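To: structure desk
From: M.T.
Subject: fold request, one chain
Message: Could you run this one when you get a chance? Sequence is below, nothing fancy, just the single chain.
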Amino acid sequence: MRVLAPPDSTADVVAALDSMEGVSSIIVGGLTHDGGLQVINADIMVHAADKAFARLEALGIDPDAMTMVRQSAVGPVNRGRRGWTAPREQALVWAEAIETARENAVLTPRYALLMVTSGVIATFGIILRNPILIVGATATSPDLLPLSAFCIGLVGRRPRLAVRGVTILVIGMAIAGVTSWALSWVMLHAGAYNGVLSSGNALAGIVTSVSLDTILVALTAGAVA
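Reply: Done. Structure tokens follow.
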């Protein structure tokens, strides 16, 4: 963890970090080029990351002046043999989850292109009655990214992040839908598709009806996400 703190707050920052479990190797470096901020570095275990951010923010440290980089530490072979589980080392860093959610709640050209690709694959999957193509469209679609951003914003009580996530999700679905409509329209006028889906088309039933099975699958997939 690197902290840029005002010189008069250096002692408080060091004392706060030193009092926390999971924090070690605190190093007070030099000043920034303008002499306005003191550089402080420390090694922090994963389970203490969010607590460190909260403690320093309570001291008045600018959130933009605190950064953390995740590293994989490798030591001698016989150093500290682990058991079957290591829950503290695998803890979730909420600050990292929030930052990832913010990155996912952005409309990028890559996201739009993947939604276009997903719409094309799904269209052929329905027309050709091919389950593999439907699965391929699902795998190609990046809609899980803004959906996860919405969920994280909801759980973390960050309404702006939640709104951004659901907005990007709706835009992405609209892009896929418009792509599917446009492709179907072109194929219809080119004579490659008659525009009729058989009532016995199992794939059409999957995507147009909701049952207990689809709800359970959606809930399970959401939990995994």
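Reply (cont.): The radius of gyration is 25 Å. Let me know if you need anything else for the meeting.
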